[in-house]
Amino acid sequence: MKISLCTITFRHHLVSLEDIARWAGANDFQGIELWGAHARNLAYQPQCDADWLAGQGLYVPMVSDYLPLDGDAETLRKKTVDLCRLARHWRAGKIRTFAGSRGSRDTPAEVRRILTARLHEVAGMAADFDLELLAETHPGTLADCGASTLRLVAEVDHPAFKINFDTLHVWEGGDDPVAAHSAMRPHIRHYHLKNVRSRADLRVFEPANVYAAAGSREGMTPLFDGKVDYRRFLAELRDDPTVEASLEWFGNDCFNVLRSDRQAIKRLKSPNEVLLRTGSF
Fold first, then answer.
1. Would residue 192 show up in a list of annotated catalytic residues for this protein?
2. CATH homologous superfamily of domain 2-278?
């Protein structure tokens, strides 16, 4: 499993990509997932590119942004092209967006039809750049639960349209992450990994709070300290070299938490190791 950190972690920090990359390489991260806002600003720093990052043993697996699917169609096309060009600049293979701005139960059938048609068009544009378009499993979107996410894949019906499996949000939507993962796995191309103290704390991840510099971080926990059972979830993934995942930490004490979570993932035992240690076959 290839593990990246997300530059969105440092959205309110005065820290350079050079410093982040140096730290990531020294702490056994393989990649850096670029937040779209950061990717756009880095375009003005020509010394920072995919070759420079590769020289440090790192790569960009995905550029994560928010395409305006609900807005003007021509604006959507322009922003999609711009995002695809940024992803190509970094030699990323994927771009990420959200599937609309309303939950599946709150989206009228005609609005859903328009959104899925636009996702189909955007996926085609991404494919023209040799990229995949990923919709993230997230509340307040058409990918807010397992059933709607699988329906979304069928409705968009494009080979370049895939899923960014945010494990916490799948759990938030009422699905068992392991069972949902089994059903969605053919369509998954990336994973976001984060955790929370309790269901009562899920509001801490609402965008209005997460993106606010003075927002609360109370209830965000290191990966293996929260309600989602990541030991169980990662058991079948950690030894798969094709799996790409990002530690999506939004809280305080970034470097220490990311370092600790990365080391904890490395210490996980695979199912075969557990069987050998217990003598059970």
1. no
2. Divalent-metal-dependent TIM barrel enzymes (3.20.20.150)
